[in-house]
Structures are given as structure tokens and as C-alpha cells.
Please model this.
Amino acid sequence: MLLYYIRHGDPIYNPDQLTPLGRRQAEAIGKRLAIHGIDKIYSSTSTRAYQTAQPLAEMLKKEIAQLEFCHENHAWADLTVTREDGRKTWAFTDLKTARLFISPEVRKLDENWYDHPAFAEYNFKQGIQRIQREADAFLESLGYKHIREKNIYQAIRPNEDRVALFAHEGFGMAFLSSVLDIPYPMFCTHFSMSHTGMSVIEFKEKDGFATARALMVASDGHLYREGLHTNYQNVIRV
Model:
């Protein structure tokens, strides 16, 4: 199985929708994914994620199944911190928290990183464990049962399906770290994804088991192909 994780296009957050640029980005990723075909299409229940999935669904004449657990509001409630100016931000974008994430003492805790005393006031453990449970249930419904203590998947229904999930960056950091068995602090501080960035995770079965392997992370080649700028978050020229 191939799992395609795609962040939504350039958004307006209030009201929740894509900008004209975001719609062009959605068309571009739709064309890219339609080349080899997608068997199942999922999206977060947010409008911006659903609108990003729509061009692909229209091209392939497939329905979009919406997943409430992928909505970014749930991750936002648990994986954010309050800055000195009183505003909330993702933990991985806060310099003080990000430095703690990569510190030796947090690294030593591995998958129990959230038990570090510095994080006692936050809901990190609750949020991460919830996303892990929901991600595991989703993948098991696709045929792959996560055996966390061994960092491997039991292929209960091995298949060659191509599955696309359109969602968010904040949620995606926790979701992909869970799928790939990489502790969240390591993943969110060393990887990122811009609008319609596409990550591809392979589940290749052998002897009844599979290891999740990232074939690409946050690729935006479809934007270049369609003549759209590839500026990271519309800011950094890459």
C-alpha cells in the first residue's frame, strides 16, 4: 500500500476555505495524483482540506470520505503552547519549546518524551496518545495493524491500494511521526510541509509484516510543473 499525505492548499482560516492560489495548488496536486490513480480519498472535515481533495475526486470520479479525527482543531487544543505575548502557537514553532524538544534529556525519554517535567502543564501526552490511537485505527481499517512495541505493522490485509489523505501541517506532524514510529519532538523539529506538500509512505509486506517507509516528504514538484511558485509558506524561496 502507498499512503499519500497531503497538506491543504493556501488557506483563509476565517472563514475556512482556500484562496484562489490554494485552488490552483489543489488542481496541481490533483493532476499529479491522478496520473497513476488513487483508490481511496480521505480528507479532514475542515473545508480547506476538503476543497484541496475535490479536484482529484472529480478527476477520478470518486467520493471523499471525511475523517473528524484529522481536523486540525483537535491537535491545536493539545499540541500548542502560550507565548510570552499571550498568544498560542504550535509547540514546534515556539523557539523555547523546540529547543527543549531537541535537548538530550528529552531525546533520552524517546517515545515517552511528554513525561519530561517541563511539559507537565501541557496536554502533549493526551494529544499524542489520542492521535496515535486514531491513526492506528485508520491504518488497521486499511489493512495494516500497528504493533507499536516492535515499530512494525502486521499486514492483516496486504494490498496494493493507493490511499490519499488530505489534512493539515499541525495535525500531520503528529500523524506522520506516529505512522513512521519517529518520536514527535524529532519529527516536528526536523521536518515541515508547505501548502499541498505531499508525503508518500510505503507499506511493503513481507512474511506478513510491513515497515512504514517514507518515499518522499512534503514534495511540491506538482507546483513547479504547473508554473506555480514553490515558496515555502509563501515566504522562503526554495
Summary: The longest strand covers residues 209-219.
